[in-house]
Each structure stands twice: as structure tokens, then as C-alpha cells.
Amino acid sequence: TAINGKNCVKISGGTFTLDAGTAGIKSDNEEEDNLGYVYISGGTFVITAGGKGIMGYAALEIAGGTFEITSADDALHTNGSLALTGGDFIIRAGDDGIHADADVSISGGTLAIAESYEGIEGANIYISGGTISLVSSDDGLNAAGGSDDDRPRA
């Protein structure tokens, strides 16, 4: 993992070029409620990840920034809820472009998912703003719930 914080990762700016064998950015506290989250409000990110691009165990919130993410797994992932309120994204994912075990909320930003298995997946998907284009080999939007382990693979 290129950037890892147990309780949280908060980034408000800067330029990041991350090449990671596993996750690009990750916060992974699974033991304490409301910890294990990632919050990004600005910056420029070029992330190449052998696993997930950005992963917040409890939650993932992105309010701004410029992101180019190429990941072998999900580009943006959380086991909790995910909120995108701003930012510009170009995503190429080996699995989901965006995945949340709970809710996905998109209210702003520009999201271009150029490659994915599922474009956006969550228990519930709420889109109230932003610009979205996506390419997926399965579902573009999947609000069926469940986890990645529930789906059949070839």
C-alpha cells in the first residue's frame, strides 16, 4: 500500500503519483466503529494499484481533486458508505469502478469510468448531480446489494 492509515487518511491537497502492488490509498481499522475512513478534498492523484485504488474500510468521501486511477480490483472501495461530492475522475478498474457495501451517493464531479466489470455498485445508489460516463462488461449501475464474493465468476 502506498499510503496507509489505520484510523483514517485525510488529504486536502498535493500531487501524488502512486504505484502500489496492493492498494494505492487505504485506511483499514476494522476494530473500532467510525474509524477506517478516507476523506479527500483536493489534490492531483495518479494511482496504479495491483489491488484497490482507494479503499476506506468504514467510509470513503471525496469532495474534490483530480484522479486518474488504474486498478486491478475496485478503483474506489468501501465496506461502508461512499460519497462523491466533487472531483474529476478517470477510472480503469479490473473489477468495479466504484463499490460500497452500503450506500453510494454522487452529487457532483465528473466521473469517467473507461473500463470496469461493474461501473457503480452499492446497496443503494443515489445520484443527484455530476457528470457520469461509464463502460462495464456487466452492470453499469448495480444496486442489488451484497458483496463482491456473492457474484459468480467465469
Lay out the secondary structure.
Layout lengths: L2 E3 L2 E4 L3 E6 L4 E3 L9 E4 L3 E6 L4 E3 L2 E4 L3 E6 L4 E3 L2 E4 L3 E6 L2 E5 L2 E4 L3 E6 L2 E4 L2 E4 L3 E4 L6 E2 L12
Parallel strand pairs: 1-4, 2-5, 3-6, 4-7, 5-8, 6-9, 7-10, 8-11, 9-12, 10-13, 11-14, 12-15, 13-16, 14-17, 15-18, 16-19
Structure explained in plain terms:
This protein has 154 residues and is an all-beta fold. The protein has no helices and 19 strands. The chain has strands at 3-5, 8-11, 15-20, 25-27, 37-40, 44-49, 54-56, 59-62, 66-71, 76-78, 81-84, 88-93, 96-100, 103-106, 110-115, 118-121, 124-127, 131-134, 141-142. The strands form three sheets. It has a seven-stranded parallel sheet with strand order 1-4-7-10-13-16-19, with no helix packed on it. The chain has a six-stranded parallel sheet with strand order 2-5-8-11-14-17, with no helix packed on it. It is globular, with a radius of gyration of 14 Å. The termini are far apart. 40% of the residues are buried. The mean pLDDT is 93.
